Amino acid sequence: MDNDVRELRGAAGLSQQALGERLGVSRQTINAIEQGRYDPSLPLAIRLARFFGRTVEEVFHCDD
Amino acid sequence: MDNDVRELRGAAGLSQQALGERLGVSRQTINAIEQGRYDPSLPLAIRLARFFGRTVEEVFHCDD
DNA sequence: CCACAATGTAAAGCTCCTTTTACATCACCC
DNA sequence: GGGTGATGTAAAAGGAGCTTTACATTGTGG
């Protein structure tokens, strides 16, 4: 499962730290998600997608 | 976070067991999600939504 | 009444998500 | 060269997701 968080965050001009603060998670969590080290929880995935004005499916791509 | 899994499953005429088998999880997992005892993981949420032909946001509602 | 399918629930156990703390690198600026 | 911001990474700890096994309830059909 990969995702577009890094690109979307870059386009928004935010640091990992700043994005984490907006979403209520640590910068390490943002970093891990961007690198695909693990998938976010469902509520965090929804918050992330909503923050960037996308659907969950647009931001997170299942590799099937 | 509540969801429409029970209604969608009912409309599809499937038991919790049958839905679990289609999605590769146990019936207890389906049961717990329907009752809101916990949220599914992101990959399972995406599989559930896709199975019912909906987006994740249509099936899972954040209570904000 | 006796199966049987469907559902609810609980415990134990494993893996995954997230946090905090901490250190390390790299680039940029003064 | 020293400070600062952004990023990568690691360890420990706690909580959440999911499994298996097991038992209990309910409704339905023979």
UniProtKB/TrEMBL annotation, chains A, B:
Residues annotated as coiled-coil are none
For this protein, the parts annotated as crossing the membrane are: none
Q: Which Pfam families match?
A: HTH_3 (PF01381)
| Record-level Gene Ontology MF annotations | DNA binding
Q: Which InterPro entries match?
A: Cro/C1-type_HTH, Lambda_DNA-bd_dom_sf
Q: Which residues form the HTH cro/C1-type domain?
A: 5-59
Keyword tags: DNA-binding
Protein name per its UniProtKB record: Transcriptional regulator
- Native organism is Streptosporangium canum
Q: What is the lineage of its organism?
A: Bacteria, Bacillati, Actinomycetota, Actinomycetes, Streptosporangiales
